[in-house]
Amino acid sequence: MDIAKTLFFMLLLTLASACNDSKAPAPASKQNKASPVLVEVARVQKRSVAGKWQRSGTLAYRHILRVHTQEEGRIASLPWFEGDRVSQGDTLLILSNELLKAELRKAKATRSMATRRVSRLERLRETKATSEEDLIEAQTELELAQTEVEILETRLGYTVIKAPFDGIIIRRLAEPGDVVSRNRHLLTLADPGSLIVRVAAPGQLLADLDTESSIRIQLDIPGSQPFTGKLQRIFPTLDPQSRLGTIEIGLDNPPGMARAGQFVRVELTGATKTRLMIPFTALRTDRQGEYVYVVENNKVVQKDITSGERFDDWLEVIEGLEAADQVIKRGFTNLKNDMQVTVLNRS
User: Fold this and answer.
1) pTM surpassing 0.70?
2) Model confidence over 253-274: pLDDT tens digits?
3) Which phi-psi region, left, alpha or beta, contains residue 64 (left: φ > 0; alpha: ψ -120 to 50)?
4) Domain range spanning residue 326?
5) Between the CA of residue 192 and those of 1, 8, 182, 198, 235, what are the distances in Å?
6) Which of 138, 162, 163, 315 has the smallest C-beta neighbourhood within 10 Å, fewest atoms?
7) CA distance 305 to 289
8) Which of 158, 177, 210 is the last residue of a domain?
């Protein structure tokens, strides 16, 4: 009986061992290996391209004159209003000047008296009837009288202010009858032919512009036609907060509806330069910055880059790549650094 039980248990162990052997893993040589990732690449190229930018700007007068008084008094005449056009030499305003005229007449009388005294003493000196000292004193008094006349004539001239150039009145800050003090701002006169556009621009744009750059300007008015401009100057400093500089554009035949203070849209074309370019789709970004994937010996290498301007479907690379590098432009799914890849195209 014990022998029969022993044989029964041995049979059960044999069957269990056979079942375990049937579930054993297949040999490693038969396991499937991961396939390389399929990608498309593009060659880093040197291209001669000109940058184009769309910026907003503001019309302004480059040449304006703020008319201030140099004498105090009552305004006797101020016939001009905002929008009035004046010609060079037109009288802009007149201050009452009766008191100055009276003082000038008095000064001239004093000068006349001093002149006669000098003449009399010169005759007496010939006969030695007066001293040299008296003559010198009289001559000094004559010089003082002449100086006083010149001062009053100058002050009298300040009471009449004339336009120094053809212009348009853009501000009127007083009325006839007002009593004004010295250095009071009364009018602002602008040269309508000095309209310019000022545009805020980043440093990269400033570096690409020169006096031959093409510039088109569009007023923000329905139905207005675009017109051209010419770069006049680039301001030498950038705003420390925005890091933007300022360019000044002169206008070629601006339309009559153009006014200082208007908003305009400006299209600028920079100088043609040879730039290192990649397809824009190749650019990747993360919290650390910009990078691309480069294929080297069928493996992925991640490279950090600094990009520049975008030109349609292409992107300028300032640093991080060299011409003829192969960058991946498609096939980024599950792509990682040092991964084996298969290139579907050879650029």
Assistant:
1) no
2) 888 888 999 999 999 988 788 8
3) beta
4) 38-49+275-343
5) 128, 118, 28, 16, 23
6) 162
7) 8
8) 158
